TrEMBL record:
PROSITE patterns the record matches: PROKAR_LIPOPROTEIN
GO molecular function: peptide transmembrane transporter activity
Source organism of this protein record: Lacicoccus qingdaonensis
Keyword Signal (UniProt): yes
Signal peptide (UniProt feature, chain positions): 1-19
Family: Belongs to the bacterial solute-binding protein 5 family.
Keyword Isomerase: no
Positions of the UniProt region annotated as Disordered: 29-53
Protein name, per record: Peptide/nickel transport system substrate-binding protein
Gene Ontology process terms (BP): peptide transport
Keywords of the record: Signal, Transport
Cellular-component GO terms for this entry: ATP-binding cassette (ABC) transporter complex; periplasmic space
Amino acid sequence: MDKKFWFIPLMLVLVFVLAACTDDGNVDEQAEGDNASEDGGQGGDLAIGMTNEPVTMDPHTSNDIPSAQLRTQIYDTLVAQDLDMEIGEGLATDWEQVDDNTWSFTLKEDVTFHNGSDFTAEDVKATIDRLLDPAVGSSVAFMFEMVEEIEVVDDHEVHFHTEYPFAPLLSHLAHNTAGIMSKEIIDEDYQNALDGADSDISAEDYYEMREEGGDEFEELSEDISESLGQVIAENPDGTNHLQLQERNPGENVVLEKFDEFHGEERNFETVTYRVIPENQARLAELETGGIAVNDSVDAENMQRVREHEDTDIIDQQGLSMTYLAFNYEKEPFDDENVRQAISHAIDRESIINEIQDGRGVLASTHISPSVIGHDESQDEMAFDLDQAREYLDQSDYADGFDATLWISDDEVNRDIALFMQDRLSEIDINLEIEQYEFGTFLEMAEQGDHDMFMLQWITVTGDPDYGLYPMFHTESQDGSGNRWNYSNPELDEVLEAGRQESDEGTREEHYAEAQEILVNDLPITPLYYGELGPGVNTSLVEGVEIDPVGIIRLENVSFPE
C-alpha cells in the first residue's frame, strides 16, 4: 500500500520548549583553558550546551526541563531528592506528619536569599500561596490543589494543612516548581502587576482580598494575570548556590556562584548554559572543549562520544514513558479488542534497536522502573501479528479500517510513526500520519478530537501518583493530562486510595492494581521507557551527574588538575 504522510505547517510558538538559532561556525575558537584552571580541582566557568532555550526563571509559569535545569541551581526546595529519588533535607531540616491532614516542617536557620534577605517561614507561605493563585495560572497548581492553608508557626516552623491525606506531598515539594522564592521578590512582582493594571491597592491588600475571595478579587486577579511573573523572570531570587548574572535570549544564560550559599563550597565561579539546538554543533563543541557538558547526545552519535578520547556518556535510567494514545470514546478505539490488536502489532524492540540505536527499555506498564511502585510482574507487550489479528477478528472491524496518527515535528517521532504504519498495514489498519509543530500538536491533543497520537510523559516526582493520577483519573480530563477521555470508576477508587495511603507497602499494592487495570484497558499503550545520556568532556570536568528527571547535577563538579 502507499504510505500516507502529511506535514501540517502551522507555525505557532512552542508551548513548553523554545529552540533558538545559533551560529556553529566558530566551534573551534574556544580554548579548553576557559573551563579549567591550575587550582587543583578549582575552575572558572563551566559551560553546558543546551538543546532548547529555557522558557523562564519563574518556577510557577512553566514546567519545561530546560528551565528546570537552571531553576534547580537557583532555588532550593523544602526537601530534596537525590539521584535515587530518595527524599532528604532541603530548606527544611526536619518534618513530620502531625495528623492525617497536617505536615510540620522545621526550617534551616542562617539561610540568605540572593537579595540579602533572611529566609523564614513567611517566604514558604508566600511561595506556595502564589503558586496556587488563580491569577498566576500555574501549570503545576494541580500538584498542590489539596493544600488548604500554609500556617506560619514562627520564623522557622511552618505547617501545611491539606484537604485530605496526601502521601506524595514530600515528592511534590521536592519538584523544581516548588522552589522557594523570597517574599520580597514576590511582593515586588505583585506590586508591579497591580501598578500595571492601574490598581491603587498594595500587594498586602491583594493578599487579604485573595484570602476572602469574591467577585472583586476575581476581577482584579484577571486584570493582573498578564503582568505577573515579569519581575521574577528577570530577577529570580532563591537561596541556592547559583544566582543569575545575565541572560542573552537565543544565546546563553550565565549563572554565578552565590558567596553566601548555606551549603558546601562549589568548585566553579560561573556556569554558562549555551543554547545550541543543532546536534552536530553541540557535539563539535563538546569534542573541541567549547562546552564541558552536552545536555543531549542523539542516539546515532552515542558510540562516537564514548569512543572519543576526551568525551564520555553519563548513562541514567529515566522517568519517561513514550506512548501511543487512543481516543477512548471514539470508534473504533472504544473497542478494547481494537486497542489490543494495535498494541500487539507494534514491534517495540525494533523501534528501540533500529530507530534509536538501542536507547530505551521495553515498556510493560504505564510507569517506568525508576518510579516507585513500578510493577515488575507485568510482562512486556508481546509483538505478535497473529495475536493482533485474533483480537481484530473479535471486534467489529475484522476487515480493518483507516485511522489517523498525530505526531510532533521530531525526526525520531516521524521514523517511529512510519515504522508503525508498515506494521499496522499487515493487519489491514491503514494509518495516515499527520505531523505538526510541537505547540500546535499539544494544543490539538488537548482537545480530544484525535484518533491516535504519540507523546511522552515524565513522572518528574518519581512517585506513581504523578505518573498515573493526572493521566488516567476521570477528573483529570480537565486538561491535567487525561487527553484520551478515559474513565474507569474502579481505577479512580484505586488511585484515590493510593494517594491517601501513608503505608508504603499498601501504596505499592494499590499501584500494582492500577497498573494491571491499565494494561487490560489500554487507554494508551506504552511503547518504551526513556534512557538519559548527556555527554561530558572528561578532560575538562569531573563529577557531573544527572538525575532520573533529566536535571544535570553540579554539586560534585570539579576540574582535573
